[in-house]
Structures are given as structure tokens and as C-alpha cells.
Amino acid sequence: MRDLFDVSGKVALVTGGSRGIGEMIAEAYVSNGVRTYISARKTEACNATAARLSAIGECLSIPADLSTAEGIEHLVGEIESREDKLDILVNNAGAVWGAPIEEFPESAWDKVMEINVKSPFFLSQALLPLLDAAADSEDPSRIIMVGSIDGINVSQLPTFSYGPSKAAVHHLVRILAAHLADRNITVNAIAPGLFPSKMTAATIDKFGEQIRRDTPLKRHGRPADMAGVAIYLAARAASFVTGVVIPVDGGITGAKLTF
Q: Of 87, 100, 127, 204, which residue is the least packed, with the fewest Cβ within 10 Å?
């Protein structure tokens, strides 16, 4: 039983790993003995995060723009040239856009759907051979999607494509879980609530205190909260868990009182 949460010796790829939720997950893996590749669009930021995390473990930077087929091909090629298997794929790279409904542009809708829904599918598809190579009935390979509680609840913010994109991610998890189960690949999602990051800074500035008050546990998310669920989903403890969405939100989704 002692090794239920042992992920040491595994190989992981975390997209959007240079900051925010992705950086939290990457740091959790690196500090627990996982050789972790991180990818992000901005080369300098990706390299800087990898350098910082390399002080505590093995972290390697592969900058790539996953909004394009060429970017996905580049990332997959780099991983294939360095590894013969991949135990954990974390599809975290994402985008958000806010604007009044009368002004919300088609280009923003397309960008959010492209990065949040289309890219994770095609990256997962391209990495199936490496995931297959690591898959085992006792300890399956893992695909972990990062969704959002905005894909479960209705946000008050004017981010009209973001919530639908994350709801699509949650359903994509269920579809992929069903289709990949016989290959010993599990597929699950983390649905974060509000975690302080560069992407959520504006939200926290404007609504942070209100959200904290409305959260049953009366606080925002912390890196350790994200680390715990990311390690669980990647460890043998979750080898019989697939097709689920786990809210990590202090109780907003599952424990908020209504009248």
C-alpha cells in the first residue's frame, strides 16, 4: 500500500507548463521523481521555468505553439526523439477571452475553441504510440485534461467561449476514456476553481474577495491543492479511475448551499 502514490521513474509531458496550473502540476511531478517535459508558446518563459524546476528534479523545456498543427508535430517529434514511452500527458495549455456580448469577436471564439478543445485532442492522438508503450493493466498510462468549474457552472464573467470550451473538454474526457480503456490508458479531468496565476490576476483583482466569501472553504486554491490531485491521477492509486471530472474548487461545485 505504501507505493500507491509513488510516481517516481515515470515520464510526463505538461503543456502550458511554464506558469499557473501547469507549473503547479509540473513542480509536483518533478519534486516526486518524474522526468517532466514542459511546453509553452513563449520560449523564454518555458526555459526559465524548466531551469527553476531543474534545481529540484528533472525538468526539460520544449517550447511549442500548440494552436497549430505544425506546433503539435514539433512537440511530438521532440518527445519521440528523446523517449520511447510516455506515462503521463497533461493537456493544460489553454486560452480565455473576455468581452461584452455585443462586442465578442468570432476570432476570439475560434481561438479559445482551437486551443482548449481541438489541440488537446490532436496532441493526445499523436502521442498514442508513446502512451501505448507505457500502458499496463496494473498501472495504465494517463491522459489528464485541465478543464474548469466554468465548464460545470455558469460564470458571471463575459468569457462566452471559455465555459463552453471547458464543458467540451469534460465531455471529451468521457469519450476518450471509453475509447482508450481497452488500451490501458485512463483519461480524467481536473476542474480547478480559482487559483492565483497570471491568467486569473484580473479576476482576483476585481472579484477575488467575493469568490473567496462564496467558496465553502473560504479561500482560493494553493499549489499543494493542485499537486495532490495531479499526483493522485498519475499514481497507481487512481489506476481504476477513468472518465471522471474532479472539481478542485473548495466546494463551489459540490458543497455550496442553495435555497
A: 100
